[in-house]
Amino acid sequence: MALRMVKGVGNIVGLSLVRSFGGPREVLEAGSQRLECAGVRSALARSISRFEDWREVEDQLVRLDRVGGRLVTWHDETYPEMLRHIHDPPLFLFVRGDLEVVASESSRAVAIVGSRSPTSYGRKMARLLSAGLAEAGVTVVSGLARGVDAEAHWAALRCGGKSIAVLGCGIDVVYPSEHHHLMVRTAKSGAVVSEFPMGTQPEAENFPGRNRIISGVTLGTVVVEAAERSGSLITAHFAMEQGREVFAVPGPVGSRSRGPHKLLRQGAALAESPNDVLSEIAPQLARPSVRRAIALRPQEASVFGCIGDSPRPLDQIVRESGVTDAEAMEILLGLELRGLVRQLPGKCYSLGDAARSGGESE
Predict the structure, then answer these.
(1) Is residue 158 within 8 Å of residue 209, measured between CB atoms?
(2) What is the pLDDT of residues 30-46, one digit of tens each?
(3) Structural domain 83-284, CATH architecture
(4) Does residue 360 contact residue 340 with C-beta atoms inside 8 Å?
(5) How far apart are CA 322 and CA 115, in angstroms?
(6) CA nearest to 68, candidates 161, 219, 172, 183
């Protein structure tokens, strides 16, 4: 925090210095001459070597402890792996909630963002997509804003899923104020994170930086209703730059659909259902080592019961399970995402690693 407080030390410069010197303490104690030899301009080198505002650092730590938060730094194992690979990853994150969610779930997370004043259709689609993804074991990430963000968080939480909220203010600042309960619930069932110091207010210039973290911590970003110039499209463009998937929900012609329709023209994937998203990200989903007992719905159990160690063709699974082709494909995709089923060439399926070990991916 001290290093980041030095004027002129942003994430890119800070990370470069930490890598060069081994850690932030070594950077602060290096002295201006060594810093200049490492390529730091003289004025900045002097500012770093003369840093004395330790009282502000202590105040930040006290405020962080007061809300039960933690500081997750670049060197920590709990730093989101997906976030390490963006152009300007934060040196650290302030976190309230489950640190394991931050550490492990970004490798199986999707962002859902959109209008702060969505139509009833936009709200419905945000809930549909979020609940479907959460039920498939995908963590839903958004920005805790009004509208689509709130719908996405609540839908994931209501079906027992996990959610991560990325803020454009300090994690001790509730914005908007009516989302206090949502913020508490998200922290209990997932995590609330920010790169901004404690007490930082939600200023407009904070949100583009917040948006790059939303896209950077996920496999892909889904845009549900957005104007042609909006924060949601900024998030989508960050996702494109970061090499992540971008999805857009089509809608009726109008101002709130212009953003998603523009993304579709630019090559974004169409998202009409959770399966549209799941089928795109399936190859990238990581398999966590945590296991739990297998729990299946009746139709899932029927399909799963037809699968063994040896390959079984799809038409045989359909015949024996009594479901339709479309239902079988949807169920098999869900089982595959959970590690219970493995798809083989020729539309054949066998048991996945998780099924053989008697559990499934959390």
Answers:
(1) no
(2) 999 999 998 999 999 99
(3) 3-Layer(aba) Sandwich (3.40)
(4) yes
(5) 42
(6) 172
